[in-house]
Amino acid sequence: MATAFTKQLITTQYRGVAGFKLLIVGTGDQPGKRYYSCTALEVVVNTYYQTGFPILYNSCSGSTSHGLYDLFQEPVRVGGAPPVDFKLQNARPASGCLYSQETSSYFSPNGNCFRYYPDEWMTFRLRTKAGPRVKDELTNSFVGLWMARENRPSELVIEWGPYNLSAGNPPENQRFGKVWLLPYNTGKDPSEAHPVAYTWYDELIISRARIPDPRPVPQQRQ
To answer: I need a surface site. Which of 23, 34, 75, 90 has the fewest CB within 10 A?
Structure first.
């Protein structure tokens, strides 16, 4: 999926929200039953508060193994001690993307979170490999998120699994089948005055095979 943002969407600190949702992959409709955006099964690309970079979470209901809105944040432990930090984008190299970097910066040179870049086409690739259903979960599942700046190769941002994706009540047999494209800010104050912001989407591709990076756009000679 190719997406472009204006600077206003990325940098505006909206009142009363915790970051906009970029993409929801959720339950597809079934004969006689329509599913909306908040489902047990869904995987959501959500902005980490209003920091300007994405994270992932699973489910609007929770299941046997975990609660609702389960964040894909990897705890960092020292020996057997409780978590002392969290990887917000757990596949980032070098200095990583850590919760503790909030006090300085999530971005270079202190942090290495992959951020949104305005006014260019960015590519997002979300891979979901669902495992076998056991009661209300798809066990032994894997989820991955790749991002790329315009005319650059994709980089792995989040690699999660094996993990039990929530799947709802077994008789419902919820399956992935619907994509929501939206910069939706949950809890946004409608009375707030703020700059106009835009998001564009292009080339949404759904495939069982790996989707290659887009080809670079040739530079025109002056």
So the answer is: 34
